[in-house]
Design a protein that fits this description.
Length: about 575
């Protein structure tokens, strides 16, 4: 269920962006950015808070609390509306191009009336930026590359955004009279990293009331098409949702068809044809007579094709059909298999929840163990010191309770340009585990980057490489390194690669996970939580791990603690 916190976070962030583009005071911009992040990561639903409660959120002062209140009372914030009138939405879009800041965006708008990403691309191609201050040839190239990256992800949204909305819709439609089943299908059910549109499927003998409920949802901006069995809407946030209502008897065939992927469906249909059958969204039929064989459940459909049921996260035509035919489908790691989270932060660095809050929230998830891994000193803005780290260790040990979740004290190190990390072996020895990540100098050559990461993995105290490619979906391209070399070294040194569950990271991504697994690499499926509300993101990491064909044997935080501890020793005595 989407929280009001997310809406308000987006509004405050928009306010900060527009303020900064229109030349507002940098300190005020920062204030709103910090407030946005705090609201997004706040543990309580802010719709339930009064003015005093709102001001109790870190970084939310009187004036911001008033704006939030105004939003709840009137559905809009007048100060934000004023800024929107000054700065077109397309100009704000310009600032989401990598390497294009608010000042440049404003200059483009002010001097050249460029007010959209496409207009900017055209202007560069036409050479109209020549002579504009701060736009050299190199900058132009970078901007074009950034635009490419944005357009590749197009109007697609993050898995988490689509999941929240789809779960809400499914809950609403399930409650409608006559609705026998309702579920989401398509790329969302396959847990792809981004979602083009949401596909909802319902089973009912009477589609009308379900269609009415669907088009009547509060966040419907426009009904794009309405028919007897299919209706498409666009939400106020610009996301398309397709609803299909099918007779209860063909639920399984429809679910199989609309889950896709298209490539997987082509393969299943071929198998049907070879057996003299015909597979469609209405069922599995005898080709000659047209007689229906099965349609009620997915399991029956696959079974009649001579296949076991194939988990949706595998349905990408990446070898799952062959594996299924040979009885070699992997037993995928599941959410319930995860015994702990090995990469999390607290307010000691850039987290939004305290150590106590994070530990309490992890206990609620029934984890067997839990690691706190705040940032190390070389990321200067986090102001970490040896003393602070050691004090946190004492506090963590004091929170441990006999017979309960085991608390591990770790850190997230910074891999420097040469592959070194923040501390020497004596200090590192005191941690239960170390994650190490690239946070700076993303632009090294492929060779340098490969050597840098391998050297970090050769450090006997580095256990996990955090978000290995550093990509941010739709925002920042992955760093480049020689995958075969890095994966071989990971397996050889006993260093796990992270599957970061944060929705805009999902890093490593599915195909690279499959590739690394073939080298014998082990993985840590972690959240990188900066707030208690991020801990549930683990589901997206698990989905991504499944798309990479991982079993619980491949995932170190699905192991019992003793086995994990042996892995973390990396052969040290
Ligand atoms: P998306 O929306 O781009 O994230 O990806 P999907 O996979 O959700 O694609 P979508 O929404 O176009 O269609 C949903 C599913 O319906 C798709 O995964 C498979 C099925 N489907 C749609 N069109 C075709 C088609 O032309 N042939 C076949 N075999 N299946 C189709
Ligand atoms: Ca779709
Ligand atoms: Ca669709
Ligand atoms: Zn982190």
């Amino acid at each position: 269920m989407a929280r009001a916190n997310d809406d308000v976070e987006a509004l405050l962030q928009e306010y900060a962006d527009l303020l900064s583009i229109s030349g507002g005071d940098a300190f005020r911009v920062r204030t709103y950015e910090k407030a946005a992040r705090s609201v997004g990561g706040h543990h309580a639903d802010i719709a339930t808070l009064d003015r005093k409660g709102l001001q109790g959120i870190p970084n939310v002062g009187k004036s911001i609390a008033e704006k939030i209140q105004e939003y709840f009372d009137k559905g809009s914030i007048s100060a934000l509306e004023e800024l929107r009138a000054q700065v077109p939405a397309g100009v704000r879009q310009l600032t989401s191009i990598p390497n294009l800041g608010p000042k440049k965006a404003w200059m483009l708008y002010h001097d050249l009336h460029i007010a959209s990403v496409q207009e900017l691309a055209d202007a560069i191609h036409d050479g109209r930026l020549k002579g504009l201050k701060g736009f050299g040839e190199k900058t132009e190239e970078n901007i074009l590359r950034g635009i490419d990256l944005m357009q590749q992800s197009g109007a697609r949204v993050l898995l988490s955004v689509a999941t929240d909305l789809a779960e809400e819709i499914v809950a609403e439609l399930t409650a409608v009279r006559g609705c026998r089943q309702c579920a989401y299908a398509g790329s969302l059910r396959r847990m792809a990293e981004t979602i083009g549109d949401i596909d909802i499927l319902a089973a009912s003998a009477e589609p009308e009331p379900i269609m009415d409920a669907f088009t009547g949802l509060s966040y419907v901006e426009r009904v794009m098409a309405r028919g007897e069995t299919k209706t498409s809407i666009r939400t106020t946030k610009g996301l398309q949702v397709d609803l299909r209502v099918v007779p209860p008897d063909c639920w399984g065939a429809a679910l199989q068809y609309f889950t896709g992927s298209k490539a997987h469906n082509i393969r299943t249909r071929e198998i049907a044809v070879r057996q003299g059958l015909k597979l469609s969204e209405y069922g599995l039929f005898e080709a000659k007579s047209g007689k229906l064989i099965v349609a009620q459940t997915e399991e029956e459909v696959y079974e009649r094709l001579g296949l076991p049921w194939i988990p949706p996260t595998l349905r990408e035509d990446r070898g799952e059909i062959d594996a299924a035919l040979h009885g070699e489908l992997p037993t995928l790691v599941e959410l319930k298999d995860l015994r702990g989270d090995l990469h999390t932060h607290t307010t000691l660095t850039d987290g939004l929840s305290t150590l106590e809050q994070m530990v309490a929230a992890a206990r609620e998830r029934k984890y067997a163990y839990y690691a706190v891994t705040d940032h190390a000193p070389n990321l200067y803005m986090q102001r970490m010191t040896d003393e602070k780290m050691l004090r946190q260790r004492e506090q963590l040990r004091a929170l441990a309770k006999e017979g309960e979740m085991v608390l591990l004290h770790g850190t997230e190190l910074n891999i420097d340009a040469e592959g070194g990390v923040d501390w020497g072996p004596e200090f590192l020895e005191g941690f239960d585990l170390c994650v190490a990540s690239v946070h700076t100098e993303f632009n090294q050559s492929k060779d340098e980057m490969t050597r840098r990461i391998i050297r970090a993995m050769e450090n006997p105290h580095v256990n996990v490489i955090g978000h290995p490619t550093g990509r941010k979906i739709g925002q920042r391209p992955p760093i480049e390194f020689d995958m075969d070399e890095v994966f071989t070294a990971a397996a050889r040194t006993g260093t796990a690669l992270e599957v970061n569950s944060y929705p805009d990271r999902l890093d490593l991504r599915d195909e690279h996970i499959m590739w690394a697994r073939r080298h014998g690499v082990k993985f840590a499926v972690d959240t990188d939580s900066h707030s208690t509300v991020h801990l549930p993101f683990i589901r997206y990491g698990v989905g991504t791990a499944q798309r990479g064909w991982l079993t619980k044997n491949d995932v170190i935080n699905a192991w019992p603690l003793t086995k994990l501890r042996t892995f973390l020793k990396k052969g040290r005595s």
